[in-house]
Amino acid sequence: MVAVTGAMPTDPERSRRTGDLVTAAARGDDAAWKALVEQFSGLIWSVTRAYRLASADAADVFQVTWLRLAEHIGRLEHPEHVGAWLATTARREALRASRASARVVLTDDDAVFDAREAGGETPEQAVLRSERADQLWRAFRTLPARCQMLLRLLMATPPPSYTEVAAALDRPVGSIGPTRARCLRLLREKLA
Amino acid sequence: MTYLWASGVLISYERQDRRRDVHDGPDDTRLEEELRELAARLEPVPDRLVQSALDAYAWRTIDAELAELAFDSLADQDAAALVRGQQQERLLSFRAAGLTIEVEVTAAGPARRLIGQLVPPRRAEVEIRHRDEVVTVATDEFGRFTADRIPSGPVSLRLGPTPGEGRSAVVTEWIPI
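Predict the joint structure of the above. Result:
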């Protein structure tokens, strides 16, 4: 990966790039698919985290979202909005999964299951040995559920657009900025 | 401003519609960035899932008709019925033009049993596609089929083309079972 600097592209330009990737992937371009996976895996994963899915459900939702895209890639009406399409698909599947598991058993957040299986110190324990990280994570976990959900989506890497976050929450895009400001202010108060 | 050069494609590292947020301030941007770094370290996307997303591309079908999920008892039945019933089987219905595929899913430990029906009934080979395998079963004269020991996880059914009827292949929407 090479970081370069330059002027920001305009909105339509960025959308066109994403749209071009979709069109290329629909034509069979492996590299374009890979670029989409790199661009949007973080967003889809953050949807499974925001909805607090257990590990098996999170894996199902993540996989089925990409399988759906593979099937729909040549049929998307707005290829340039594929991020919002993925976020919407992941949200619907997350809700389906929580409905299914609500009947079985409620599972605690186990995002670090991979490490636990491997034994030894979990990444969580290693990271949280830093005092600031520990403080920040604890404060985050005491925020109202609505705030945790919104922030967990915004925390995706690379940063998702507000349009994509709004699609993941099924909320109006205009509500994202004000709610984000309120939740970050609350978090800052808890840290003070 | 930073961009990432990934797979030969320039990706903007900052999403544009955020820049119009009048509520945003430098403190907010910094705090969100700090949270992002923490999330990336605490809850990274598992590598095996990234690999599964790359592999998903191989399942892409060309020229197949898509049978959309029209009914899922899990999602479409009212919550009260779900709680009352504690039903063991799940009913799925996929619809394409002039064809419905009904599937009943029952759990047997970690595996699933599928009992299906094509409407209108016809003899056909049904491919059950799950993760890295395809299981093929044949329908009987009434359009019924059964498949045992399908692992839980995403699944999709495929019916081959029937040139006699001028019908292309049909694939169902992927769904976790």
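DSSP finds ten helices and one strand in chain A.
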